[in-house]
């Protein structure tokens, strides 16, 4: 890190002139810094300690207990909560559903995000309009998205089933059939993600040097070849960045589930965070919910760790 | 030949753009459109009515606390944003410009907190805010988010770009750390600060689970949970009013997004690529 | 760059302005409310019931000058229980709150409330005026814990106009499963599959009622009336018969599955009101919404029972009102005054007319508003008839078990599976096993042997 600062020093240009006269520093810099460190870092460290470090330890602690109806840990049971979760078919189903959801959402978000970014780069009239539209869902918060899509998926008045009945296709009970409910949640999530993903990808596409395409054009290379052999490699760091972010955010999905399916039907959309909420704040089973929290934290930690590795690389070698 | 080819390509391009536009826009359009229809017509499955009106909006504003919800969200988001700008930048400053024992260790510790999802910690955090007697207050939605590891990380990267000579010169001039922080470092990194501002504001605005657990009255409930509240109260399927409420919530953010798109885009790429 | 700086400054400036205005506003609001003793009242009522309840609050506040009741909606019944327990002892907690039937055991055991009996005794309140069946549900050893407030009966609704249109004989007042199957199938077929015959929402409460109406206990220790239950039984003959009935109608296409949760019941009602659904099972509390929402004639019958077996009667549903013990005596007194206000004969009568919940004050039946209702909608009498016909026994007086929300979640999951074609016995057995594991660890955690 220090080295980086030194390297940057070559860009010396912003030195205010009145600072250039030399004075010797006569006091102990480190002592002064130490004192300042307390003031500069104190507030943040306090908040992180109280709301991030302590709760993690506490959650670990609670996960080893049974809690009574007032949420107090009463009986130490060791790893029994973990054992009962990992042998419960319903929890395993939740785990599986979460992975299905996360993978589907991530892949579709990437594909559609790229498609939007690519389409927005077409040199056609009105492309500014399309760019604005494509970034639109970024301004949509989770509850608004849920309301929009609840209406789309409504079995008796929703648009999708109205179209289906006009075309004499079977009417789908989107939110009450397990497979379809998951599909509906995935569609809504992807739709919500697209605004942000589009903006990032579109920005990345602009950084690809134009002469690469020009050269390809001269060679007479097809568009799809250009995409896979020029565009994608050039923006691959961004693609990776977006996919990890989407992955992690999907693991934490809660709002859409709560508003659209409440984990149903038949627990088909009972993803990890919703389950924690259900077990803790509906059933009052805080010990078990803590165990579920620990499992969630481990899964997310793994993916965040991956993200760091990649981010670090990019920051250093850019 | 070539002209025909390029014409065909243009048509193809427009078709792709159009299909994508429809997919993105349909939920919006349908939502906004139905917000002008009488609920009685909507619940019959009619998407056309001769009684277009603003009645649903009037009903949403006069019969529900939707405006109050918006206000609450605004207060919480602004407070969170300002706090994060201050505390994150202070911490980032310490990690870049202060020399003290265990600095790197502490930094990695802060980084490590990014691996811990807040969602997995709600149970003890609820107990904490409960014992601090913060429940059902703006403070409960701000205090746990006064700082963010992501913000510290991002600003640290920005501060590292400041040439060492600037710092050396400041030392020579006798600027204190506070003076250097406020007069040189912050103005130098304003783009990153703006990005963090946007990010923290949006993150706070979109909070859903935590306010749902910790607010119990309309005086403090933010808009995300307010909409949930309206939806669950409306057993009668008052779709017109629900859609109008959603529109009231989404229109300001859309406007901000479109007006600020220019800043936002550059900011985001800055944040993402750096 | 300049632009950005300006933007940043503007944002901060606006923020500061908004916060100042907001602060001033908040303090003003607070200043206005300080003269009276504030009594925060949590409720979970929606739709017309919420409107009526808020009217009561307003009337109560205008009727006296000592107390100011502040009504706050806390989402659905399930959410509210943990909110109540979690906030106890903080400034956010309610002074008086509504909590659902099946939470009675849990709230009582928390020790967070003052039994209503204390105020009944202090005031020599004539408690005999309040329905004894409802009181029994919320009493422990003859001591009234909370005041029964919104009390409903599960009933069956049908669209009489639709049946007439397709020349279908309506079901009898005390129908069996096959009576309903006949009507549902005829409706579905004669409407050329345009009208769905029947809906039974995936709702644990309805499942519990199928068992009660078959005369079966869900939990041991006589549904918890003789002691803390240690086991439940879901795959009883009565439960299986009910689920078979559902599957039979699913197979013929007559039954529409709306799923579970609040959007399920909303969609179910919307379908019924728009004439796309002929019959559904739901709380009597929906009557007013149903009569207001459609011009079609509404039919109501008792809860259906298994074939070749007499209906054992269903338990009451709904909720009662409790007084928290973490507030000063004056606030608790205010809570009690508010409860008394709600239980006045005229208010109980208005409550039934506005919602469909049963008026619990015996004097309410003479009130004009109820007499008019019975004249206009004769079917509105059916729920109270069903109630008075029921002979209370251990199986139809509710289940006294902590953690019944878990039971609802599990039975609903089982119903969900069954509605999607799974084996009935397996699904119920699975739910039962999960519930028994839960009860075991829950009893252990709460020190029950």
Automatic annotation (TrEMBL), chain A:
Membrane topology note: Multi-pass membrane protein
Origin superkingdom: Bacteria
GO biological process terms held by the UniProt record: transmembrane transport
Keyword terms, alphabetized: Cell membrane, Membrane, Transmembrane, Transmembrane helix, Transport
Broad class of the protein's primary localization: membrane
Pfam families: BPD_transp_1
CDD domains: TM_PBP2 (cd06261)
Subcellular location, record wording: Cell membrane
The keyword Transmembrane helix belongs to this UniProt entry's keyword annotation: yes
Residue ranges crossing the lipid bilayer per the database entry: 37-57, 91-117, 129-151, 180-205, 226-248, 293-311
Sequence ranges assigned to domain ABC transmembrane type-1 in this UniProt record: 95-307
Annotated Gene Ontology cellular component terms: plasma membrane
Similarity section: Belongs to the binding-protein-dependent transport system permease family.
PANTHER family linked to this entry: ABC TRANSPORTER PERMEASE PROTEIN, INNER MEMBRANE ABC TRANSPORTER PERMEASE PROTEIN YCJO
Name this protein carries in UniProt: ABC transporter permease
UniProtKB/TrEMBL annotation, chain B:
CC terms in the record's Gene Ontology section: plasma membrane
UniProt keyword Transmembrane helix, yes or no: yes
Main location: membrane
GO biological process, one term: transmembrane transport
InterPro entries, per database record: MetI-like, MetI-like_sf
Keywords tagged on the record: Cell membrane, Membrane, Transmembrane, Transmembrane helix, Transport
Subcellular localization(s) per the UniProt record: Cell membrane
Residue ranges occupied by any ABC transmembrane type-1 domain in the UniProt entry: 70-260
UniProt membrane topology term: Multi-pass membrane protein
Record field: transmembrane: 12-33, 74-98, 105-123, 135-155, 191-210, 239-259
Stated family: Belongs to the binding-protein-dependent transport system permease family.
Protein name: Sugar ABC transporter permease
Species of origin: Liquorilactobacillus ghanensis DSM 18630
Lineage, highest ranks first: Bacteria, Bacillati, Bacillota, Bacilli, Lactobacillales
